[in-house]
Design goal:
It contains eleven helices and no strands. With 238 residues, it is mainly alpha-helical.
């Protein structure tokens, strides 16, 4: 396989787990989904081939949740290729599959998928649609007490409000995301929260708070952008 991830020790370990698992082991499909996630940003062509294999196996086993995961993978790969229409269509198919179940795994997957759709609509400038999807995602995350998902939703809500010029709301949601990130030990998202708040304060002309948050932010933070949640959910079925 080409791309940077070809030499990733983590990716190598996933392949070992996948090859060692029994063919009828449901975790084998979950591992294949994780492999797609680790591949899709650096080598989307190979990731698409792997997603095809995930869909083939999931369909053969009539595993609805794994089929939904495959559609999520297709959607994320399409998003990487800037094919928004295809990405949204695959996310809709994933949501339809998740809707056939009411268990926690399905609700977690549906929440993540709605969030990913929201990110696309946000980038398209369709803020009302993005906000609606983020709030639907949050409602599911709150229902199943999925703080990991809430962390991402709060961050994305902050981004929408920042784009709309609602600076106080942006700071509030970025802070909520950062607070959950600290509880979860998610250093990358803690840094994102600090950096985003520093940027908002700077645009507001409040240099003091901007400097304070910038100093708290790790030096290697750089410009951290809200990404789709798939990479974070690589180890979960949903």
């Amino acid at each position: 396989m080409n791309g940077k991830n070809a030499e990733s020790p983590y990716l190598d370990s996933l392949w070992k787990v996948y090859r060692a698992a029994a063919h009828n082991d449901p975790d084998r499909l979950l591992t294949l989904h994780a492999i797609v996630n680790e591949t899709q940003y650096d080598d989307p062509d190979s990731a698409h081939v792997l997603a095809d294999e995930l869909m083939r196996q999931a369909s053969a086993q009539q595993d609805t949740i794994a089929m939904a995961l495959a559609h999520r993978d297709y959607g994320t790969i399409a998003n990487t290729r800037r094919d928004n229409h295809a990405a949204i269509e695959h996310y809709r198919r994933a949501i339809a599959l998740y809707a056939t179940s009411s268990d926690t795994v399905a609700m977690r997957g549906m929440a993540a998928t709605m969030h990913n759709m929201g990110v696309i609509h946000m980038h398209l400038g369709e803020m009302d649609t993005a906000l609606s999807l983020y709030r639907r995602s949050m409602a599911l995350d709150e229902r199943i007490r999925n703080n990991d998902g809430l962390m991402y939703c709060f961050g994305s809500l902050g981004r929408v409000h920042e784009i709309q010029g609602s600076n106080d709301s942006a700071i509030y949601y970025y802070a909520k995301s950062g607070g959950i990130a600290e509880q979860l030990g998610e250093k990358r998202m803690v840094a994102a929260s600090l950096g985003n708040r520093a940027n908002v304060y700077e645009r507001m002309g409040q240099i003091g708070p901007a400097i304070d948050f910038a100093y708290k932010c790790p030096r290697d933070h750089g410009a951290i952008e809200q990404r789709t949640r798939d990479r974070r959910f690589a180890h979960h079925r949903g």
